[in-house]
Amino acid sequence: MSNTENIKKLRSETGAGVMDAKKALEDSGNDFNKAKKILKEKGIANAEKRSGRSTDQGLIESYIHQGNKIGSIIEINCETDFVARTNEFKELAANLSMQITAMDPKNIDDGNEFSLLDQTYIKDPSKKIKELIQEVIAQTGENIQVKRFYRFELGETNEKK
């Protein structure tokens, strides 16, 4: 595979910019998997730097499972309305709402496996929800926060969240 093809593939799999993908490939001696790891680590570091930024834009997303007996609604925030309208952000919100419906997390983040951010992602068991969010932070360049969520199941009598 040519260097240009490797850069394109790396960008499509990680959401990294052209120069970041090129540099990661150079730093890894053109080892695709090492370059991917470098970009992942850089994305996590950049996401941590952005974590203090204000998130007062975003959207509310819902998911209702087949049969209409279980569903969820989530508020997810970002820094600008521009990012809130991107496909990456909308897809993240939809995937998180589906995750909440399927896995019934007890809260957003309290450091255990029952919290949303520490759950294994149902669509890709190799990553946690917090890693999924960090990937979108790396792609958009903005801080992203889950503000709140609710899960509904037919017949439940008490509010959980």
CATH level 1 name of the largest domain = Alpha Beta
- Please name the fourth-level CATH homologous superfamily of the largest domain: Elongation factor Ts, dimerisation domain
- Average residue-wise pLDDT: 85
Main β-sheet, spatial strand arrangement: 1-2-3
Q: Runs with pLDDT <50, length 5+?
A: none
Number of domains: 2
Protein architecture, described:
With 161 residues, the protein is an alpha+beta fold. It folds into 2 domains: 3-50, Ubiquitin-associated (UBA) domain (Helicase, Ruva Protein, domain 3, Orthogonal Bundle), CATH 1.10.8; 57-153, Tetrahydropterin Synthase, Chain A (2-Layer Sandwich). Helices cover 46% and strands 16% of the residues. The chain contains 6 helices and 3 strands. The protein has helices spanning 3-14, 18-27, 32-50, 81-84, 87-103, 129-140, and strands at 57-64, 70-78, 145-153. A 3-stranded antiparallel sheet has the order 1-2-3. The chain is elongated. It starts with a helix and ends in an 8-residue tail after the last strand.
